[in-house]
Amino acid sequence: MALAVATAIAVMQITNTTHPPAGAEPLVVILEDVSWDFIFVPVLAGSVILVLCALVFNNFALNREYPRYWS
Description:
By secondary structure, this protein is mainly α. It contains three helices and no strands.
């Protein structure tokens, strides 16, 4: 379990996307012995919903564009 969490945190640091609660994800997968569907249903779906919310709410202001590099 420690190796899984350490690997997840190392990958997040390498990609500059560190999110401490995401380090708990490998623990949930290992402790609960969940299927591969767990990656797609709460994890991927939640990530997509968060990005869509960020796009909608951050683009309400006329003087802001989110993300800047897509425009």
